[in-house]
Amino acid sequence: MINKNSATINAETEQLLERVYQLKPELRYEVREGIVFVIKENNAWIQRTLRKIKYRIPETSEMELDEYGSFIFQQIDGQRTVREIGERLGETYEEANQQLYDRLLLYLNHLEKNEKYIVRIV
Fold this sequence. Notes:
Layout: H1 11-17, E1 21-23, E2 28-32, E3 35-41, H2 45-52, E4 60-64, H3 67-75, H4 82-92, H5 100-114, E5 118-120
Antiparallel strand pairs: 1-5, 2-3, 3-4
Helix pairs in contact: 4-5
């Protein structure tokens, strides 16, 4: 486990903390009262087909991020490292310091690999 106050951080972990991410340019999102809503198009072939036969399928759907996720998402700017984002998160949310970097790296990996909202640039 890696936490903010960990005295020993190995070389692999150092590399992970120096990563820099940016939001994908085509990603649509809105920030409302500090909470991020990611807007996704409902454009699969089955959705388009059902719309043609008058099923009420919305054109878009929104995914609301929680408070921590919204904070992290708004820190991703293509310049800040994972370490810097973690430090800001720990300063803003004291309770987040428990296993801070473990959780942060896991979340960023999810945003990159599963949701495909961000890309690693460094």
